[in-house]
Amino acid sequence: MKKILIINANYYDNITKKLITPAINFLKRKKFNIFTLEVSGVLEAPYALRQNIKKFNGFIVIGCVIKGRTPHFDIICKSSFDAILNLSISFNKPVTNGIITCFNKKQAYERCGIIKSKKPNKGLEAAKALFSLIKNGSKKK
């Protein structure tokens, strides 16, 4: 059974709970063994990913970054996303990004389902993407 680690950057705990739950439910239905690890924010997620990269078959990083009035948002998003992608490529491991980046809480609430919206749940999207990567990954010839 494939082991999946979901790293939950729970700075906005009420939002990430709504992202992580559908991801876990989807992957359990697909018969994956799910583990979770909580970190305080998205900037800490790449370190947690690196510490566990050899122990699991795939990863989802869940989190939320809401833009404030400083460039902090841009720095956090770019640094975290680049580090996550680089780890995935360097270690040849599937890692999907369920971090929502929003201008305000209303947008975040729409992307996680706190507010009804036609926007898909980003956590579920990340789980479906991971499933696809693992299911359809490279085939040996």
Distance separating the two termini: 23 Å
Q: Which spans have pLDDT < 50 for at least 5 consecutive residues?
A: none
Q: CATH homologous superfamily - what is it?
A: Lumazine/riboflavin synthase
| Helicity, as a percent range | 40-55%
| Total discrete domains | 1
- Tell me the Rg in angstroms: 15 Å
The number of E-state strands comes to: 4
CATH class: Alpha Beta
Question: Care to describe what's here?
Answer:
The protein is of the alpha/beta class and 141 residues long. The chain has a single domain (3-135), classed as Lumazine/riboflavin synthase (Rossmann fold, 3-Layer(aba) Sandwich), CATH 3.40.50. It has 5 helices and 4 strands, in the order βαβαβαβαα. The protein has helices at residues 13-29, 45-52, 72-91, 105-112, 122-135, and strands at 3-9, 33-39, 58-66, 95-102. The chain has a 4-stranded parallel sheet with strand order 2-1-3-4, sandwiched between helices. Helix 1 (13-29) packs parallel to helix 5 (122-135). It is globular and about 45 Å long. The chain starts with a strand and ends in a 6-residue tail after the last helix.
Which secondary structure elements does this structure contain, and how are they paired or packed?
Elements: E1 3-9, H1 13-29, E2 33-39, H2 45-52, E3 58-66, H3 72-91, E4 95-102, H4 105-112, H5 122-135
Parallel strand pairs: 1-2, 1-3, 3-4
